[in-house]
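Researcher: Quick test of sequence recovery. C-alpha cells follow.
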C-alpha cells in the first residue's frame, strides 16, 4: 500500500528536520521520495506531530525471567486487562504484561522497535519464542556474556581474538544482537555465595577482574564491529556510593575510544548513580556523572527512571536481587544458569514518601536534564524494574515541563525534596529532543540504519501524535503532551496502519534482528571452526545438554533480519 502523510509537523533529528511542515511518502514498506498521490491512501496530519517510530534500547519483555515473573505475580495480572477485539487477542499484566499485550501497548504509544536486553544463551529458544509471539513491533535480544565461563577463561589468558571467535559463534547460535554484561564477575561470584567489591576484585576460580572483563569484551566488540557497543549493567548497582564505580567503569575504557564513536553503554544509570555510605545518607551522584559524560564522547546512557507505582524487579544481577529481597521482605526468585549467568525477581512498590525511592526518582531526571547532549542519554524505565514501559508518556511530560516536576516535588519525601537537584534545573526538553531520546538516539546507538529516521529508504515506521507544536505550550499543557504520547493518532509499521486513535487496527507480525558476526571476513573461517570444535569438547565436559540444543536455526524465527558484518562495520 502507498501512503502519503500530508502537512504534518515533522521531527526527524537524524536528518536535521525540526518541526518543519512537510509530507512523507511511503511505498512497499519504505519511505520514498514521491508517489502517485492519486493511487495512495492520504493521511491528513495537519496540526499533528510526525516522528519516526519509537525505539526502546532496554526493556525486559521476553524469556525465562519475564515468564517466571508472570508466574510469581498472579496479582499483577488483574491490574491491567487487555480486552479482546475483532483485531486483537485478550491479555493481562501491569508490570509484566503478556506477549500480545506488550506488542499492542508499545504500538499504541508509537513504538515500533524494542530490545530485550537480558538473554541467557541456554534459554535463547524460549526467549525467541516469546519475542516471536509479541506482535507488530520489531525485536532484538542481547545474550548475557559477562559471566560466561568461556569468556572468563579467554579474558584471563588475554586471548582476545579467540574470545571474539567464541562471541561470534554465540551471536550466530543464539541469534543475538549485542553483548550484554551484568555485574561483571559478580554474578559468577554469586554462585559461591559472594559478590565482587569493586572493579579490581578477582572472580573466584578464574582470577580475572571486572575491569578486565569490561575492557576485554569492549575490545571483542570493536574487533567484531558489532553495531551496538557493549551494553553494561555496572558493578555495585543499587548500592550507596556506587557512582564512583560507575565513573571508574566509564574511565577504564576511555583509551579504547576512537574519535567520536561510543564504546560503552551504561544501562539504567539511575540505579548506578548513588552517593552516600548507607541508605540514610543516600544522595544523588547525577551531577558528577553528567559532568563526566558532558566531557567525553565514548559513553552513552539510558535513564532507568523510577515511577511511583507497583512493579516487578528482575535482573541477571542475582546478588542485588537477594539484597532487595532482604530489604523488602517480598517474594523472591533466584535463578542460576549453568556456567552462564544468574538472576532474581522481587515484586516492589516505589513510594513517594520513601526517602530512598523519591531520591531515585529525582536522580534519573537529573541525569536527563544535566547531560547537555540528548544523543548521549535515552528514555527508559529499565522496564519493569523502575516501572512499566507504559509510563513513558508520563516521563516525557516531566521532561518537557518544570511545572509538573515542581508539582510532584511537593508530594514526595521532604528530605528527598531538600536534597534534590531538580529545583535548581530549569531546562525543559523540546519535541526534537524528545524525538532523540525516544527514537533517533536509540536507533543510532544500536546501529539500526533504517530505523529512527524518516529519510528516503528508511523503514516506514512512523508515529503521528495529535498535538500541534505551533499552538501548545508544552510546559503549561503537560497533560495534553502526556495524553498525546499515550495514544497515537496513527502508528504505521512497515508502511501499514496498525493503530488509529489508540486502537489496534491491524496486528501484523514483527521481525527479529540479529547479527551474524561470523560472516564477511570479520572472523576467518578457521578461527570460527576452532571455536566451534572447542565448544563441542567443553559441552561434553561442563553441560547437561548437547551443543545441538543451543543452536537456533534462522528458519526458527519469523521474518528474521540477519545483519552481516565486514571489517569496516
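Model:
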Amino acid at each position: 500500500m502507498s501512503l502519503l502523510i500530508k502537512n504534518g509537523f515533522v521531527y526527524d533529528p537524524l536528518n536535521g528536520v525540526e518541526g518543519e511542515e512537510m509530507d512523507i511518502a511511503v511505498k512497499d514498506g519504505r519511505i520514498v521520495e514521491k508517489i502517485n498521490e492519486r493511487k495512495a491512501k492520504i493521511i491528513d496530519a495537519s496540526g499533528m506531530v510526525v516522528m519516526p517510530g519509537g525505539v526502546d534500547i532496554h526493556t525486559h519483555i521476553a524469556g525465562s525471567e519475564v515468564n517466571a515473573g508472570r508466574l510469581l505475580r498472579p496479582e499483577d495480572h488483574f491490574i491491567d486487562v487487555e480486552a479482546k477485539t475483532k483485531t486483537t487477542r485478550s491479555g493481562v499484566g501491569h508490570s509484566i504484561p503478556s506477549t500480545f499485550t506488550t506488542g499492542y501497548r508499545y504500538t499504541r504509544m508509537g513504538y515500533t522497535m524494542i530490545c530485550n536486553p537480558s538473554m541467557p544463551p541456554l534459554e535463547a529458544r524460549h526467549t525467541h519464542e516469546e519475542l516471536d509471539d509479541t506482535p507488530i513491533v520489531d525485536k532484538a535480544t542481547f545474550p548475557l556474556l559477562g559471566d560466561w565461563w568461556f569468556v572468563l577463561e579467554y579474558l584471563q589468558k588475554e586471548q582476545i581474538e579467540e574470545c571474539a571467535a567464541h562471541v561470534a559463534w554465540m551471536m550466530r547460535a543464539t541469534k543475538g544482537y549485542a553483548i550484554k554484561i551484568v555485574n561483571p564477575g559478580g554474578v559468577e561470584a554469586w554462585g559461591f555465595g559472594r559478590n565482587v567489591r569493586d572493579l579490581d576484585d578477582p572472580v573466584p576460580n578464574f582470577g580475572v577482574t571486572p575491569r578486565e572483563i569490561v575492557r576485554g569484551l569492549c575490545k571483542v566488540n570493536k574487533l567484531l564491529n558489532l553495531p551496538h557497543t557493549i551494553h553494561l549493567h555496572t558493578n555495585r548497582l543499587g548500592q550507596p556510593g556506587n557512582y564512583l564505580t560507575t565513573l571508574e567503569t566509564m574511565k577504564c575504557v576511555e583509551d579504547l575510544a576512537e574519535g567520536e564513536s561510543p564504546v560503552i553503554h551504561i544501562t539504567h544509570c539511575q540505579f548506578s548513580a548513588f552517593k552516600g555510605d548507607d541508605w540514610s545518607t543516600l544522595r544523588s551522584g547525577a551531577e558528577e556523572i553528567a559532568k563526566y559524560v558532558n566531557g567525553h564522547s565514548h559513553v552513552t546512557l539510558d535513564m532507568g527512571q523510577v515511577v511511583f507505582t507497583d512493579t516487578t524487579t528482575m535482573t541477571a544481577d542475582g546478588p542485588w536481587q537477594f539484597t532487595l529481597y532482604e530489604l523488602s521482605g517480598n517474594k523472591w526468585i533466584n535463578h542460576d544458569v549453568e556456567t552462564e549467568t544468574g538472576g532474581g525477581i522481587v515484586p516492589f512498590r516505589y513510594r513517594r514518601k520513601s526517602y530512598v525511592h523519591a531520591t531515585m526518582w529525582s536522580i534519573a531526571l537529573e541525569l536527563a536534564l544535566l547531560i547537555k547532549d540528548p544523543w548521549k542519554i535515552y528514555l527508559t524505565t529499565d522496564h519493569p524494574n523502575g516501572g512499566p514501559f507504559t509510563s513513558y508518556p508520563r516521563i516525557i511530560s516531566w521532561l518537557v515541563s518544570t511545572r509538573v516536576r515542581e508539582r510532584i516535588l511537593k508530594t514526595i519525601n521532604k528530605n528527598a525534596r531538600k536534597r534534590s537537584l531538580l529545583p535548581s534545573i530549569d531546562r525543559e526538553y523540546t519535541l526534537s529532543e524528545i524525538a532523540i531520546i525516544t527514537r533517533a538516539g536509540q536507533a543510532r546507538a544500536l546501529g539500526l540504519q533504517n530505523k529512527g529516521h524518516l529519510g528516503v529508504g528508511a523503514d516506514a515506521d512512523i508515529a503521528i501524535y495529535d498535538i500541534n507544536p505551533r499552538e501548545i505550550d508544552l510546559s503549561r499543557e503537560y497533560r495534553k503532551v502526556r495524553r498525546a504520547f499515550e495514544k497515537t493518532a496513527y502508528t504505521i509499521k512497515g508502511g501499514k496502519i496498525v493503530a488509529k486513535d489508540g486502537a489496534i487496527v491491524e496486528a501484523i507480525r514483527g521481525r527479529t534482528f540479529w547479527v551474524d558476526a561470523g560472516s564477511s571476513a570479520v572472523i576467518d573461517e578457521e578461527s570460527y571452526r576452532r571455536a566451534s570444535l572447542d565448544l563441542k569438547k567443553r559441552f561434553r565436559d561442563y553441560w547437561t545438554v548437547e551443543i545441538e540444543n543451543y543452536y537456533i536455526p534462522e528458519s526458527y524465527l519469523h521474518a528474521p533480519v540477519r545483519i552481516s558484518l565486514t571489517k569496516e562495520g
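The chain has a mean pLDDT of 94.
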